[in-house]
Amino acid sequence: MSGSTFAGQGGSPLAELGQMLECSWKNIEAAWEKTLRTQELLSKIIEGKPGSETSVIVHGSVARQECTQGSDLDWTLLVDGVADASVQQTYLVVKKTLSSEAIFKDLGLKPPGREGTFGALTFSQPIMHFIGGEEDSNSNTTRRVLLLLEAQPVGIRKEAFDRVRKGVLKRYIDEDRGLLRRSHADQSVRWVPLFLLNDFARYWRTMAVDFAYKQFERGNEGYALRSIKLGVSRKLLFASGLLACFWCDPGISKNVDQESSKQGLVSCLDSFLSLTPLERLALFFVVQIKASDSQFMRDTARGLLDAYDDFLGLLNDPEKRKHLNELMPDDEEGDAVFQEARAMRRRFRLAIQDVFFGGDSPLHQHSIEKGVF
Question: Phi-psi bin for 291: left (phi > 0), alpha (psi -120 to 50), beta?
Answer without folding.
Answer: alpha
